[in-house]
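Key result, reporting period 2: structure in, sequence out.
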């Protein structure tokens, strides 16, 4: 009996020590164990704990995005759920949001806010002489990932101080987008200008894991000569002076 009592006492001590270690586990130690499972995502300068910490740099496919801060709530773990508050801040990239992982592996992000330079999207146009100006901001009110599919996604985006430069330069009014998920796991949306500038935009887009497609009709409002000149380098000229833009590509070009 005495041996059994010592055994249970030792077992309780081991559980307590293990709990303390888990509760205060340094983030850099944990990262060394999971780094090989993160695929294209890598961190540098990791510090803090697994519950609240900081990384001096986070990169995806070798592209540096900036610093990463996180805070993980402990209570949901008892229900086999992960609830984390994440933020990435770089020189010109700023994104934050709440991320939850359910027991079945379903990952849901709430109130995801992002700000990126429009120039980041230039590679998808595949027009080397054209540079996008301005800043794109937006919000995902909610988006869920499960079994490689996206569901429950909806949000908005705004391209502020929009413009292009290259062989010609022109500034436009803000470009607005709304988007939501489709039953097949893709995201579809519409694009339009705010009606205050001299570039008229009407279009739509679809984003899927296999790539993306976008179509838009662009026209110079009020016969603005700078916009007309810029449209010569974007899309297929139409008989009425507008331009028909078709884009098909892969998201990996962003990285």
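The corresponding designed sequence is given below.
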């Amino acid at each position: 009996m005495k041996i059994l009592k010592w055994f249970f006492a030792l077992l309780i001590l081991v559980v307590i020590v293990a709990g303390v270690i888990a509760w205060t586990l340094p983030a850099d130690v944990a990262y060394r164990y999971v780094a090989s499972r993160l695929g294209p995502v890598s961190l540098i300068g990791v510090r803090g704990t697994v519950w609240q910490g900081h990384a001096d740099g986070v990169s995806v496919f070798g592209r540096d995005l900036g610093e990463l801060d996180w805070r993980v709530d402990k209570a949901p773990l008892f229900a086999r759920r992960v609830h984390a508050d994440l933020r990435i801040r770089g020189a010109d990239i700023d994104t934050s949001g709440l991320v939850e992982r359910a027991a079945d592996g379903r990952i849901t992000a709430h109130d995801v806010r992002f700000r990126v330079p429009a120039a980041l999207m230039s590679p998808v146009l595949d027009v080397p002489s054209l540079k996008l100006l301005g800043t794109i901001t937006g919000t995902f009110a909610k988006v869920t990932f499960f079994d490689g599919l996206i569901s429950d996604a909806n949000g908005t985006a705004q391209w502020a101080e929009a413009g292009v430069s290259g062989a010609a330069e022109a500034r436009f009014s803000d470009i607005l987008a709304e988007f939501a998920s489709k039953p097949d796991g893709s995201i579809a949306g519409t694009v339009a200008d705010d009606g205050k500038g001299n570039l008229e935009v009407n279009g739509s887009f679809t984003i899927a894991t296999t790539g993306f497609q976008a179509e838009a009709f662009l026209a110079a409002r009020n016969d603005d000569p700078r916009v007309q000149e810029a449209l010569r380098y974007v899309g297929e000229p139409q008989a009425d002076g507008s331009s028909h833009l078709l884009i098909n590509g892969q998201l990996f070009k962003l990285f």
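The chain has two domains: 27-104, 106-255. The radius of gyration is 24 Å. This case is discussed further under Risks and Mitigation.
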